[in-house]
Amino acid sequence: MAVYSEFGSFGALVEEVVAAGFASLAETLRTVERTDDPIADLLVLGGAYRAHAYAHPHLYSVMVGTATLGGHQHSRPEPAHYLAAVDQAVELVERAMAQGLLDTGEPLVVGTQLITALHGGVTLEMSGLLDVVGDPFGRVLLPLVHSLFAGLGADPGALEASLHAAMTRLAASGALAPAQ
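RESULT FIELD:
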């Protein structure tokens, strides 16, 4: 009865859990250090996203609708909750475009494209389906990210430098440890 008196329904509780999950993800992404290399920062942001998903696998699954909570799946998250997380990528995309590191375009669309690829890769990695290739992070996720940025107009040499800088930062933070 406590759920019903506090939230009105179990479904409303699920929506609150999803909102809290996106708020937590947004806060994690906000903590990513911003440097003078927004491409490296975007890559580190991706690592933080992946680490957050692995740290909260059940919550992540409910947030993105691949699992239920008490048999209830969220109906549709509020766009504002999702955008709080995506805005972190959009801000970095805007900086990269302003510096001429990426082709100009719609930052919200580009940020959403990056988060979409990241989400797909992380979800498949967490499910174990990417294990068929061995080293899914190194053989699938990193090359995917490289291809995405190249397709967005990143200079190949600058992209390699950004990737190296991001890998150094991710290794120092422990984010490159094998996912559990």
